Amino acid sequence: MTSTPERERPSRDRPESLADLLGGRRGAVDATLPPVAFAVGWLAAGLWGGVTAAVLTGAAVAGWRLRRGDRPRSVLIGLLAVCVAALIALRTGRAGDFFLVQLVSNAASALAWIVSIVVRWPLLGVLVGAALGQRGRWRQDPALLRAYARGSWVWAATYLLRVAVFVPLWLAGQVVALVVARVALTWPLIAAALAGSWLVIRRSLPAGHPGLRHPVASSDRDGAPPPEK
């Protein structure tokens, strides 16, 4: 019969969840504001109005994120992405091209997540391992490695879904529809991916596993040497 500490451990891990470790939903909400501002400005004053509204909103979001203590590097990357998207739209003269950076980014992200799974360095494990200060120790746990790989497929699917939705809308120049899709497939989809991948990980781990914070090397489990990195 399972001992009391082992029975209590999942209850301590459950409230933390991937959303607590990765904090993805809060940043995703911020990321939807510049595209919404772009659409409003574009409808009101054309391309220059949309670009101006998006850049000003992006700068305001960046300032707010810096004040609340977010990492300057991630904040500046977000603002730079908005500026690059604005420059592309101005250069081509097509409002829909404001979303080209997002489209390419999602395609590249889908490829990166899939490749990480194939080479047995699933990005979900890399991100959670970094958040927990584990470096690569989680890879020495075969059960945890398998669970992270399965959970990573959830994230790869989200990027593939965005590409499948964005490409036809971008080709058709549907600016308003692109904004709606961007909002619908950003923070709600990230929230769903956080919950879904967390559920996949928990169901993939065997009974009695101590959880994400305590990788169990195969040598600790059955006396066999850990897998090669």
TrEMBL record:
Q: Which keywords describe this protein according to UniProt?
A: Membrane, Transmembrane, Transmembrane helix
Q: Where are the transmembrane segments?
A: 36-62, 74-90, 110-132, 153-173, 179-201
* Zinc-finger found in the keyword field: no
Extract the InterPro entries matched here: UCP010219 (IPR016566)
Give the matching Pfam families: DUF3159
The protein's name is: DUF3159 domain-containing protein
